Amino acid sequence: MSQEIMNLVEKSSLREDPLDFQIGDTVDVHTKILEGNKERIQVFSGTVIARSGGGSREMFTVRRIVAGEGVERKFPVHSPRIAKVEVKRSSVVRRAKLYFLRDRVGKAVRLKERRR
Amino acid sequence: MTKGLLGRKVGMTQIYEESGKAVPVTVIAAGPCDVLQIRTSERDGYEAVQLGFEDKPRRLARRSERGHVAKLSSKRSKKLAAAGQEASPKADCEPKRYVRELRGDVAGYEVGQQVTLDALADVELIDVTGTSKGRGFAGVMKRHNFAGQRASHGVKKVHRHAGGTGSGSAGPSRLFKGIRMAGQYGNSRVTVRNLRVVRIDSENNLLLVRGAIPGPNGGLVVIRETNKVG
């Protein structure tokens, strides 16, 4: 009963067009950013290594290498600030969390491409 | 007119504002409540409105609980009626599981009236009263956020103890009152004041409040318009 109520409340905050990407995908995340009173779009691209949480609290983690340093950014799936997520490339992965990528450098970071 | 309601805490989640800001909210299933009785200063010495929340099956309700909400035909009531004693008005509803009183101005309330979330429609800030989660007999680290003692450097078996509680024979030779020590923590009445109403869904009797409120999910809470000024 209480779970039904929570779902009902969260429904209003879920995005109408679900983001379509999978773990291991290389994506461009388009984020709306307010600068003063002008809105512009910032893009963060990288590999989706995890999805966590449920309902309106769901988040996903994108990892990329910037200047030899690993950078991870966590985005809320249902935030209206996320304009869109573009899938550039899909990979073959066998687990839901790709945290093992954190321990890898260079060529070892590559994932095998999955053709759809 | 005091504005208030009884409800059950459902749980916490977050919702997004249009600006994209995430707001942490507690969901409360509030009302509808029946007004069971009205306390007046002439008869009771104080003013309050008595609300009943959630039906209790008749087989579980005591006779007094059933008699409180609806007229019972008893020898006593007949005798009183014969003697010209007027019976107090009854709400004429099912027996209630929770009965609580809200003190304050009772103008606008009458027995038998149903109070829903619409009563809080133009209220921005509320106070929520509940019973906090019981933690039993808790030590000073959990109960008062003491720092405890060191893990090493000669500390033996007292890592989670308080330090001193005052000076000894040289000083007052006694403990001052109010020294914080271990003891019962939680399971007490707690009021959180000045919570912002984020959303009211009167269709489903749901109230969304910004921030946390006391008690476990499923616990009874009393919601009132805030009495905090400024």
Brief summary of the model shown:
By secondary structure, chain A is mainly beta. Chain A has one helix at 2-11, and strands at residues 26-35, 38-52, 59-66, 69-76, 82-89. Chain A has a five-stranded antiparallel β-sheet with strand order 4-3-2-1-5, with no helix packed on it.
Question: What features would you highlight for this structure?
Answer:
heterodimer; A: 116 residues; mainly beta; SH3 type barrels; five-stranded antiparallel beta sheet; B: 230 residues; Elongation Factor Tu (Ef-tu), domain 3; Double Stranded RNA Binding Domain; 2 domains; six-stranded antiparallel barrel; 3 helices; 36% strand
Walkthrough of the structure:
The complex is a heterodimer of chains A (116) and B (230). Chain A has one helix at 2-11, and strands at residues 26-35, 38-52, 59-66, 69-76, 82-89. Chain A is mainly β. Chain A has a single domain (2-103), classed as SH3 type barrels. The mean pLDDT of chain A is 87. Chain B is mostly beta strands. In chain B, 9% of the residues lie in helices and 36% in strands. Chain B folds into two domains: 1-31 and 123-139 and 180-230, Elongation Factor Tu (Ef-tu), domain 3, CATH 2.40.30; 33-115, Double Stranded RNA Binding Domain. Chain B contains three helices and twelve strands, in the order ββββααββββαββββ. Chain B has helices at 63-69, 75-82, 140-144, and strands spanning 4-16, 22-30, 33-39, 48-55, 96-103, 114-115, 125-131, 137-138, 183-184, 189-201, 206-210, 220-225.
